[in-house]
Amino acid sequence: MSRNIVKVESIGKVTHDVVRIVTTKPDGFIFEPGQATEIAINKAGWVDETRPFTFTCLPDDPYLEFTIKIYPSRAGVTNQLRMLKKGDELILNDVFGTIAYKNAGVFIAGGAGVTPFISIFRYLKSRGKIGRNMLVFANKTRADIILEKEFKDMLGDRFVNILSEEEVEGFHHGFINEEFLKKVIPDLKMHFYLCGPPPMMDALLLQLTNLGVDEGFIVTEEM
User: Fold this and answer.
1) Model confidence band, residue 57 (pLDDT cutoffs 50, 70, 90)
2) How many CB atoms lie within 10 A of CB 178?
3) pTM exceeding the 0.85 threshold for the entire prediction
4) Of 160, 152, 216, which is closest to residue 190 (Cα–Cα)?
5) Coil, strand or helix at 208
6) Among 211, 148, 155, 140, which Cα is nearest to 179's?
7) DSSP string for residues in 2-24
8) pLDDT for 73
């Protein structure tokens, strides 16, 4: 197992419960857009407490970036992460992940499940290859939407939001179902990239299968 110690360069808020952590980058460190690593905090009592987090920077950026949802009430790793300061250290383990860009398609995310897609969309934009890719993003409220402005700037009308606990003009309301997918997705003969809570993923796999999407065109993280 590889093991790299990196220093925190900055930490700031993205939403009310999501933070952006930027760290140093080890020489020769390699990952693909959409991949992740197991992270631990290099402090007594936390070294063995690893959690998976996705890289949200580009592979050729001179730093590493993680966009992480915080759960203060759990008093766990993410709560410790939000209290980090510049100069604190993190331990990165092996890079892993099976969510990789194959071809133009529909990305469907629930909450913090959008994080593997951040690096992918940033990579596509940097190469001028956003094309007809679209993002369907499910959240509880508008305040929960991660990087709303950036996704809107990149995707325009191909950035579709649905909110389950709030009705906002210009946003869909409710939960993703087959009727909603047929309404917002113009072409079901594309790749589908899925990431979110397990119950949502189970429901989406069934819905897409019912809509005739070939399972070979569905990309998810292997459990």
Assistant:
1) very high
2) 13
3) yes
4) 216
5) helix
6) 211
7) --EEEEEEEEEEEETTEEEEEE-
8) 76
